[in-house]
From TrEMBL:
Gene Ontology MF term list: hydrolase activity
InterPro entries to which the protein is assigned, alphabetical: AB_hydrolase_fold, FrsA-like, FrsA_esterase
Region (Disordered): 1-20
Native species: Propylenella binzhouense
Keyword line: Hydrolase
Domain of life (superkingdom): Bacteria
Keyword Hydrolase attached: yes
Name of the protein in question: Alpha/beta hydrolase
Keyword Lipoprotein found: no
PANTHER family recorded: CONIDIAL PIGMENT BIOSYNTHESIS PROTEIN AYG1 (AFU_ORTHOLOGUE AFUA_2G17550), DIENELACTONE HYDROLASE DOMAIN-CONTAINING PROTEIN-RELATED
Length: 425
């Protein structure tokens, strides 16, 4: 029996990953969802709503009411996506381009969210992906800034992305942020509909689904360490053909599992000038997230890695770590972490940061879990704002003192030096 679906082919019927915990605990997951709603494992409806703005709040409130079990997730988002798409079409036909673009954007987010529980390349996943792309392309056509689909050659395949230029850009070479989604999110939700913090600071954003991330498995591009190590050089090859991008000012931003992907990406090419990650997944082998957290995480990552057999995946993931790559990172590195991260114990992040040879900053939020929220984030440096300001400064060439910040619940920041590193030259 083939334990891993062969690369270069879509998963056939019956290609859905199977795990022991999912089979044994499905009834628990459904009961927890009935008691706690769609945000049972992480604030999913919050981070999906965030890029859409307040107009979409009623959508997500309705979805929170509708989802009572795991099987409700995709239908609830699909139904809301159809409503928003119909509103967008009607608005465009009525000559209301701003209303149309808002609704196309929100519809794309709903279509993308509907894909999350679909851990195989079946007809439903492919159809939802097609509608997501179509709605986002319609939004891009009407957007208040330049948005275009891009494809990054990686071997014989191409990684999917969307390139955003700041509103009002009239020429000249821009700094670029390569922005990566987490395990359960997608590139269309990275850049906010309005007021995006990176764009507002004059930086272009390449929102990218890297190897194994969301649309990439649909295109048969799966997670491997080799694929991520090849992605950095592939990005700079693509950047060389983009006259609006300054190849000497390229940074990385990644959240959740992209804190790991972004770290490997930063190590893959010395031309990156910054790497900022948050909501960490830094445990070698990822035992905590895959064996102690919601069983959906392991199912999702098996799909991302093109595995259907759990034992084969366990043997594969056991050796997946940043430890062989981190020594090659020379650019400044920012890491935001929750003190009580339930998916990746803080000790692993502290060990990673300690191994970095370049300038680095570790910011730990008191009492916060994996999703950095609560009093410390509310009263202290806001995570998204901190990352945007930090990235802008690094791509501008400002020096960085290596420090550990501990953000107390009341907002006070305790700063202590990290040893052995000099400021950015």
């Amino acid at each position: 029996m083939d334990q891993r679906v062969p690369d270069g082919t879509t998963q056939a019927a019956g290609g859905k990953p199977h795990t022991r915990r999912w089979a044994a605990q499905r009834w628990l997951v459904d009961n927890i969802i009935e008691a706690n709603g769609i945000d049972w494992d992480q604030p999913r409806s919050v981070y999906l709503n965030a890029p859409c703005g307040t107009e979409a709040s009623a959508d997500f409130a309705a979805i929170r009411q509708q989802v009572k079990k795991f099987a409700d997730c995709s239908p609830a988002f699909e139904a809301m996506a159809r409503k928003r798409e119909a509103k967008a079409v009607a608005a465009e036909e009525a000559g209301q381009p701003v209303t149309a673009r808002n609704n196309y954007f929100i519809a794309a987010i709903h279509w993308g969210a509907a894909q999350w529980p679909l851990e195989e390349n079946n007809a439903r996943n492919l159809a939802d992906n097609e509608r997501k792309r179509a709605c986002y392309a319609a939004y891009a056509r009407l957007a208040d800034h330049h948005v275009e689909p891009v494809w990054i050659p990686l071997g014989e395949k191409r990684l999917p992305g969307w390139l955003h230029l700041p509103p009002g850009h009239q020429g000249g070479r821009l700094p670029l942020v390569v922005s990566l989604p987490g395990m359960d999110s997608f590139k269309e939700g990275i850049v906010q509909l309005y007021g995006d913090p990176m764009l507002q600071r004059g930086m272009a954003v390449l929102a990218l689904d890297g190897p194994g991330q969301y649309e990439s498995p649909v295109l048969d591009i799966y997670f491997t360490m080799e694929n991520w190590r090849a992605t950095g050089p592939a990005l700079f090859d693509w950047i060389a053909g983009r006259p609006e991008i300054d190849s000497g000012r390229v940074g990385i931003a990644g959240r959740s599992f992209a804190s790991f992907f972004g770290t490997i990406l930063a190590a893959s090419d010395s031309r990156f000038r910054s790497c900022a990650v948050s909501a960490t997944c830094h445990e070698p082998g990822f035992h905590t997230i895959f064996e102690e957290a919601s069983p959906t995480f392991k199912m999702r990552f098996m799909y991302m890695s093109n595995f259907v057999d759990e034992d084969a995946f366990d043997a594969f993931i056991r050796d997946v770590t940043w430890e062989d790559d981190v020594g090659r990172i020379a650019c400044p590195y920012l890491c935001l972490a929750g003190e009580c991260d339930e998916l990746s114990p803080l000790e692993h992040t502290e060990r990673l940061v300690g191994a970095l040879k370049g300038p680095k900053q570790l910011v730990v939020y008191e009492g916060s879990r994996h999703s950095i929220r609560g009093p410390a984030a509310n009263n202290g440096p806001h995570p998204q704002t901190l990352i945007a300001d930090w990235t802008e400064a690094r791509l501008r060439g400002d020096p960085l003192a290596s420090e550990r910040w501990f953000v107390e619940a009341g907002g006070r920041v305790q700063k202590t030096p990290l040893r052995g590193l000099a400021p950015v030259p």
